[in-house]
Inverse folding.
């Protein structure tokens, strides 16, 4: 898995226990999955339809640098399935993993449409 983006945990990203708020991390991963899918499917007309099997392994603290990686796991006719990980840049310790993120390609009316892709494009 390639780790293509990095985020720094800031005070505004913390929860009541002064660790990274899980919702913030899910948002960062969803954004990275969208960017990865746009590069793979070569269209901006996509939408996330599922994020599941999300696990938190260790907390992240203020000042930590988080690396996010996404990789395609399956190409459907209108969909792309991916998995993602977030890890601490310094320690390489896994912070979270998500075994299934699904996006679909959409036509101008917002209906699912075939994307015509079948293999990972190395970018």
């Amino acid at each position: 898995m390639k780790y293509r983006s990095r985020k720094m945990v800031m005070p505004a990203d913390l929860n009541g226990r002064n660790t990274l708020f899980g919702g913030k991390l899910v948002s960062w991963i969803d954004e990275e999955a969208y960017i990865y899918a746009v590069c793979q499917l070569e269209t901006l007309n996509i939408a996330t339809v599922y994020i599941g099997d999300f696990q938190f392994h260790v907390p992240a603290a203020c000042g930590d640098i988080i690396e996010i990686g996404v990789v395609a796991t399956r190409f459907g006719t209108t969909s792309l399935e991916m998995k993602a990980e977030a890890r601490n840049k310094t320690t390489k310790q896994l912070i979270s993993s998500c075994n299934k993120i699904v996006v679909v390609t959409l036509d101008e009316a917002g209906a699912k449409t075939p994307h015509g892709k079948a293999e990972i494009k190395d970018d």
About this structure: The helical segments are 22-41. The chain has a mean pLDDT of 95.
